[in-house]
Amino acid sequence: MDSIESIANLSTALSQAQLRSAVSMRVLKMAQGADQVAADLIAETMDSVAQSMEAFAAEAGTHIDTFA
Description:
By secondary structure, the chain is an all-alpha fold. The chain has one domain. The protein is 87% helix and 0% strand. It has one helix at 2-60. It is rod-shaped, with a radius of gyration of 30 Å.
């Protein structure tokens, strides 16, 4: 009976380890996905800022009051 309990305990421990591993991988993938979303948003924001700065720089010389 002792060896049967040992095998059952080992099987349970193995199943729990596999479950923990699967959950850990799922959480890791979710975190990586969230990081990628944040990186994409930052890149889009930087592109938008760069475009705004270019547009402002192009128009900056046309609105200078030279008669003052």
